[in-house]
């Protein structure tokens, strides 16, 4: 009788052990299947690239990558149940790196253009930028682009913004600068009536350098800054879009944006 009881206990233990192993293998296989489904380059992680040289969007501080892009990518990875693995790559080869499977995504302030879309796919935009008019904080005369006729406008030399400015005022009233910040500083000192530059560049200068300026009117053109994904990886694109939308819906996106820009850069 004792032998029979011992045999039955041993048999039950073997069955339970087999069930446990089967369940463990099932969970492991599901995880691997999920990683394989996304085509991740590093199991359990979302590896995303940027230059690391574009503050405050992405840059290195004390040897560690930080900035708006990094925080957005980290939160997306978290909501996908993955570890965040931000990496750097030179801008001129960043698309080639994605196509070569060096990383899963580009979260580096890349505008989705028709030319780039021929090589890779893009998610929904994670912020909107474009050409923006800036004026001094105390300027109440200029409210929109229609008010720029006859005004002095500062722009970067040989830029598309220079062409825009010349259509809004006379060409002799457009002043070229080597960099945006110089024009924005002159604007805050009252040497210009307005500046046309990238929205994010202007907002960053306003916050970081304490310039007494403000954006006015709608964007003169719109850049949809999106996350680059390897062509055809629709499953990963869909999951990133879901994570991004949930961040927008629960206010997390706005918190991150306010931290870095003191405004919601998803809004026009």
From TrEMBL:
Task: Give Gene Ontology CC terms.
Answer: cell envelope
Primary site of residence = other
Compartment(s) where it occurs, according to its Swiss-Prot or TrEMBL record: Cell envelope
Domain annotation Solute-binding protein family 3/N-terminal: ranges: 45-264
The UniProt keywords, alphabetically, are:
Lipoprotein, Palmitate, Signal
Query: Any keyword Lipoprotein?
Result: yes
Q: Which Pfam families match?
A: SBP_bac_3
Stretch forming the signal peptide: 1-20
What family is it from?
Belongs to the bacterial solute-binding protein 3 family.
The name of this protein is Transporter substrate-binding domain-containing protein
List the source organism: Lysinibacillus telephonicus
């Amino acid at each position: 009788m004792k032998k029979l009881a011992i045999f039955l206990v041993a048999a039950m233990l073997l069955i339970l052990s087999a069930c446990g192993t089967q369940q463990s293998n099932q969970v492991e296989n599901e995880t691997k299947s999920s990683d394989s489904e996304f085509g991740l380059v590093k199991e359990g992680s979302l590896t995303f690239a940027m230059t690391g040289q574009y503050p405050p969007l992405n840059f290195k501080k004390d040897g560690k990558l930080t900035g708006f892009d990094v925080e957005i990518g980290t939160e997306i990875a978290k909501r996908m149940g993955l570890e965040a693995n931000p990496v750097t790559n030179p801008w001129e080869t960043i698309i080639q790196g994605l196509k070569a499977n060096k990383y899963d995504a580009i979260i580096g302030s890349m505008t989705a253009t028709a030319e780039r879309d021929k090589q890779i796919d893009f998610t929904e935009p994670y912020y909107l930028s474009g050409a923006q008019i800036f004026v001094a904080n105390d300027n109440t005369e200029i409210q929109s682009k229609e008010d720029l006729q006859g005004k002095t406008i500062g722009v970067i030399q040989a830029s598309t913004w220079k062409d825009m400015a010349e259509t809004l005022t006379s060409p002799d009233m457009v002043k070229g600068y080597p960099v945006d910040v110089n024009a924005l500083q002159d604007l805050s000192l009252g040497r210009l009536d307005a500046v046309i530059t990238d929205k994010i560049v202007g907002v960053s200068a306003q916050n970081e350098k304490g310039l007494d300026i403000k954006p006015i009117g709608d964007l003169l053109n719109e850049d949809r800054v999106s996350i680059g994904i390897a062509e055809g990886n629709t499953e990963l694109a869909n999951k990133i879009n879901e994570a991004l939308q949930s961040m927008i819906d629960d206010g997390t996106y706005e918190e991150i944006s306010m931290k870095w820009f003191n405004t919601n850069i998803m809004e026009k």
